[in-house]
């Protein structure tokens, strides 16, 4: 044991005084964890909410399609917690829901305005007959208040 302590001396001296051991361990299913970590990064990049349950479902889906590599894998809550620690993911509370505007918004607006003006002139519509209406999509999914994100990043949630 003393040899191990000497080997890890610099790590042990930098460790918090309240921490009792180096228990992070290595992944038993590294390919599965790599695939799930990439899936999380992709979903967060696209602005989707990623919860612990969706991580566990994605891990089980990967395990079922790759049975040879993932024998005896069970996506337990403790596996999920350890996975999040190993890959520096944290659970964050959503602060707001934001929608990004399209990059070509100005050209779309100009195009739409010119279309409306041309139709008005062509069909001889009075301004009082033109109205503005906005359609708002409704999402019936009950989105949770928390999402998984990379530790130390500031993202719009």
Automatic annotation (TrEMBL):
SUPFAM superfamilies, per database record: Homeodomain-like (SSF46689)
Major localization listed first in the record, in broad terms: nucleus
A Pfam family that the UniProt record links to this protein: HTH_Tnp_Tc5
Molecular function, one GO term: DNA binding
Protein name per its UniProtKB record: HTH CENPB-type domain-containing protein
PANTHER family noted in UniProt: POGO TRANSPOSABLE ELEMENT WITH KRAB DOMAIN (PTHR19303:SF74), TRANSPOSON (PTHR19303)
HTH CENPB-type domain boundaries: 20-93
Organism: Petrolisthes cinctipes (Flat porcelain crab)
Cell compartments where the protein resides: Nucleus
Keywords of this entry: DNA-binding
Keyword Repressor: no
